[in-house]
Amino acid sequence: MERWSVAQAESLAPDPAALKRARSVSGQFAATGTVDDVVWGLVRGYQVAADLAGPAFKCSCPSFRAPCKHAVGLVLRWAEAGTGDAPPPDWVTAWQTARAARAKARSSPPDPVAAAKRARERAERVAGGLTELRRWLDDQVEQGLAGLGRRGHQAFEPMAARLVDAQAPGAAGAVRRLGGIAGIGPQWADRLLGELAMLHLLVAGHDRLGTLDPATAATVRSRIGFPTPAEEVLAGPRVTDRWQVLGRFDTDDGALTTRRTWLHGSATARFALVLSFAAPGQSLAADLVPGTEFRGDLCFYPGAAPLRALVADRASAAEPFGSPEGGGSVRAALSRFAELLADDPFRYDGPVLLADVVPTGDGWLVDPAGDALPLAAGHREPWWLLAAAGGRPAAVAAEWSPAGLRPLAAWVDGAFVPAGPPVPDPGAPRATELPPEMLAAALVGTARRPWQAESVRVGTAVAELGPSALLDAAAVALTTRRAGATPDVTRVPVEPAPAETDPPLPAAAGARLARILRGGAPGGAHLEQELLAQWLAAAVARGGVVPPALLPALLDAARRTTTVRSDVARVAGRRGAWLAWQRPDWGWLLDEATPVTVADWTTATGTERLGHLITLRRTDPAQARRLVASTWGADSSENRARFLATFADGLSPDDEELLEHALDDRRKEVRQTAVDLLRRLPVSALGARMRERAHAAVRLAPGEPARLIVQPPDRLDDDLRRDGVGATPAHGAGAGAWLLEEVLAGAPLASWTDLEPAGYLALARANDWATALLHGWAKAAVAQSDARWAAALLATDAGVLREAVRWDLHLVLPPDTLARLAAEALRTEDGSAHRLLGLHPGPWPERLSVTVLETIATRARTDRHTWQLGELCRTAALAMPPEYADLTGRLAAQLEPEVDAGRVRPIADLARTLAFRAEMRAELAPENVTPRQ
Questions:
Q1: Under 8 Å CB-to-CB from 500, ≥6 apart: which residues?
Q2: SS3 (DSSP) at 23
Q3: Is 302 left (phi over 0), alpha (psi -120 to 50) or beta?
């Protein structure tokens, strides 16, 4: 049996949440195998099997879903890595035998006499129901559609129920759908009259079934709801071709999910529609994967314009194809649609395959001749196509209807790009399709305002016609208008995106990014953001741009998570900036600078200047400083702050003069940036001023014992304000204590030389101003990244420091020190262990990783609450070295027979996440560097 693709396996899941649950169990199967078309496996004690010829599923778990997460996970496991070669157990064989017996019972031939009797009885019931439908349609137009708009869907339920009783489900569904039109949305009366007219035409067709040609009669019967058995369709003529799967989409009406899959024959240029249906919670057929093709036979359902088909036979496996064959112009597509309506006027939409079309900025697609068709509501902003094609011509498959084009997919440079999902679009325009005089008569009612047809005269007078004539005329007018649609020739396509200058990232890395963005990464949603950040950091280190088709999802993710924006700007390339220029909520990308070189500083934009400064500060910081100074007075305050922030790279005493000048800036953001940088300089005038103030406020008095004499500043003067001392004290602090804390925070720690840090801190704890002293030195340690003072403060703190300040001090510690503290906290079961682990930037050293694994094993066996185990595993998934994936997986396998499955699950998830990160690192390893195994 040929293995499915991962996309086929994923499509078995009823929804994204079910797919995530399936992925969580796909790596936990203890034994797997295949027999004939059946894949089977054992997971957590459950017996799972999937007959992929159906598909049909079996699982001994208590879930009511079919397929459950175990069944989907089994097929995912098979698609990704295959299965074992264990012989099938008895329960698999028994299930196969039972299914074969049921299939044989269903295949017994029916009684032809009884079947003929049932057909006659149904025809009589349908005829009676449609007779009532005709009278009901006439009554609605005679009484006026305005009343229907006020009554809502209740006005249509009795007639729909009567048609259900008459075994005319197609007509019943059409009547029931009218309840979603009457009184709802713009031009509702025009849409309602059009649907009523087509129903009236359907009744007229049924009345003439005996005189219609067989193909048209079959069309009428199918619209009414007469079924055509699949066996009868498959017994008909076959069309052999190389069938290309253009695309599909699913619709859910609550009671049933319908999947519409469009195919196109490369030799016959014939379209085919394959339908599949599923009840809520059930899976849809996934054997036709968009973007692939196969050689085989299709059998079409009978009709005047047959489109719906069944796959009768496949002569080859499904394989990707570069670009669809048979694409044409807009006018050719409209001509083909007109021919379709001439044969089947009941159709509302039809397939089109357009070649070399480009989107406009206002929701149209334009072909090379300048002819344009509008995109349907919900698709008028095709960011998926703009991103993939960059405003260059592409082949597009879509459904065309009076509402516009509903895209299925596009092909860009031989690559298949599925259409993005529709978005709410309440402002989409809709034009009327019927003449206003006809609509006016129908709204008021022909009983009060008879409709007059100018083309019908009796003598010299214009004839007044009844509701049936109005409905017939409306059907003709509606079909004529739809068949006679013409393209717009005034639309202008978007300007193409500039060519990329950076190379693309590896294809495997792009596929992994797509998996993260669509929620397919292991560990669930709570890890996706961090995995995305790690992927982006590795991609930036390697260099290159992401696949263009992923840009909309990536930019949306960065719109929600601001911490990754800088890295996204580095990998989005020129295509990303081109998209951001067109969409306001992606405009943040234009403000994210990437290292560039500009030729003329005076004419460059603020973002270009910022990127140029980032580059210069690494190579020529003096030149960068001169450029900033040259336009300082003309730059905006926002740009002055952004430009100064780049001085952190290559900061030196030479920068002090400009930074001192910035202390007098009128904007707080500029002053604060200058203060932060000056405090990082080993020797500066600001540091000298703050040192003088600090030592005036705090003096060491020698003696036995020594003590600190504290005299806080008495007021906040202009000089203190200029040097960055804020006026707003911390909660609960007095004015003097706050000024003391701020002065100490700004003074260089290297100036406290009489004692070791621990000595000063011991004296401070015995002082009345202990809180201000400790906080001032702590803030100085954080600002100056002084690990020696930070370690001393943490060692002597006994709950005096505010929690935020205490945890900021941990960030100053070297990673090995932080790892040692975290390991000690784990061994002593200190409650701070998890937070310490979260602060470590990773990857963890070996000692800490081993301690964490030992703790995980202990908690899995002994802890009463699994949430602590889960939290520890989630933290480890992001910071533990990926090399521990195999060891963690062996731990999960060892624990499976010992403890409850709920305790094994987070450990198995940890193993999968570590393996995911290892693969990610290998895919994004710098060129010419072999990643560690």
A1: 545, 573, 574, 575
A2: helix
A3: beta
